[in-house]
Amino acid sequence: MVLTLRYLSPMPQRRGARRRLTAADWAEAALDALRDEGSLSAIAIEPLAARLGATKGSFYWHFTNRDALIDAALAGWEARSTRELREAVSVGEREPAARGRELLRTMTGLAHRDPTELALLAEAGQPRVAAVLERVISRRLDALTALLRATLSLPEEEARHRALRVYCDQLGRAQLARAIPTVLPEAAHDEETCLDSAWHSLLGATAGEPQP
After folding, report:
1. Which site in 148, 171, 179, 199 is 20 to 30 Å from 100, CA atoms measured?
2. Is the confidence at residue 61, as pLDDT, over 90?
3. Confidence band (pLDDT; 50, 70, 90) for 12?
4. What is the pLDDT of residues 137-192, one digit of tens each?
5. Whole-number Å distance between alpha carbons of 114 and 191
């Protein structure tokens, strides 16, 4: 007896069938919740499942517990921050002022639009959060310090001091813009104006003076 084998094509996916969630989907949803609520307490399994239209079973397919999800979310934010910084630093063909503005835009400009870093700073008492913040911020300050030294031939200590001062100023401005926007002048809400001011501050100059 001869058996005839027929090739069976995969069953087509039903129209409207739900896409299988990935670990990255859950991690990004955790960051969304953190941004919305401003606290790690917003990262909870059942509310996230509802946000994603998923079940708790989907969560446990990817993560053993809530701590593992928080670690994945932090790792995702750190990787994205590092990638954006690398891209900003790599625009070496631009003049120093343009490179400096792009670097500042990456370091602090996003804080005016994306509250992730501000929310994480509020949770810096958590060791896992503090460790990630320290790595990300240190890389940013290193890059800005190196640019200042190359542009102005500043000593390491002076360049680092200027970088740190401007970084703190921009984060503080972003925090006020979100929390109590009425205390800031209108110009402080314009990103390009803020970047100009920050770059001049880094150079130790005032607006309107020649710059490299």
Report:
1. 179
2. yes
3. very low
4. 999 999 999 988 888 888 999 999 999 998 888 888 888 888 888 988 887 777 78
5. 13
**pTM of the predicted structure, to 2 decimals:** 0.81
Rg (Cα) of the chain, in Å, rounded?
A: 23
Q: Are 6 and 36 in contact (CB under 8 A)?
A: no
Fill in the DSSP letter of residue 184. S
C-alpha span between 16 and 123 (Å, rounded): 39
* Domain-wise residue ranges, the chain: 23-203
Paired tokens of 59: 């969560």
How far is 193 from 21, CA to CA, in rounded Å?
41
Site of tokens 């006020």: 176
Residues 6+ apart with CB under 8 A from 127: none
What is the C-alpha separation between 55 and 129, in angstroms, rounded?
Answer: 27
